[in-house]
User: Fold this.
Amino acid sequence: MAARAIASTTISFGLVTLPVKVYSAGQPSAQVSFNMIHEECGSRVRRQYVCPKCDDVVEGDDIVKGYEFAKGQYVLFSPEELAAIETPKTEGIEIDEFVPVEQVDPVYFDRAYYLGPDKAGGRAYRLLAKALQETGRAAIAKYATRGKAYVVMLIARDGLIVMEQLHYADEVRPVSEVPLEDGDVKKPELELAKQLVSASSSEEFDASKYHDEVREQMLEMIQRKVEGEEISAAPVAVEAQPQIIDLMAALKASLAERKPAARAAKKPAARKKNAKKKAASR
Assistant:
């Protein structure tokens, strides 16, 4: 089933303007959501806004937006004033610079989108995608749409341009704010840890190996409930308390568990290699 575009925009780099369509990279149907229901009659309840001062329900027509400039003090804005504030000078994706892909820290990643060429944009689209892929660079751009401005990164993957919406620098917490305990790294422990990493390593990431087990369990239990079955809560695992462990012993035990699996994974590859050698010798 072909993806459906959620927006249309343009990419500007130099004097080139490229029309593109924006597609969501995620699947919105993946999330399991519940509604709020009145237990007595089974009807879905509505959310209402209540004024605590007047102790009354406020209808939508009587609600305006306001900004709290001091404690308990608000300046109010009309829809026209909000439109003037929120409307960007220009809309579209304006490339500002090109940087090596590996220089963008993943901590800045927020949300990914796919970009596809719009009408008459195929040639310029393929040109930009190929340029990005062959130079190993990412385009850093400003993206304004629907009254909001974002900083985004454009990268090429197999001929497709992927747009990664980024956090602004002031939205990312500095690593210095995370407390770290002091501790010495001993060489024997480090060597074992590196062996454990090696034994658990793969040459490429296969996303299909991982799936949302909690979501699958939820859907299964929901279906059972639909079919009239009563559902009992599963025993809650007691949270493990932090313990002082023998780090060397734990690393050795972990490595011993991983080695058989690593050997089993390497056997098929070794067989293929040997088969190729035999075929070449004939």
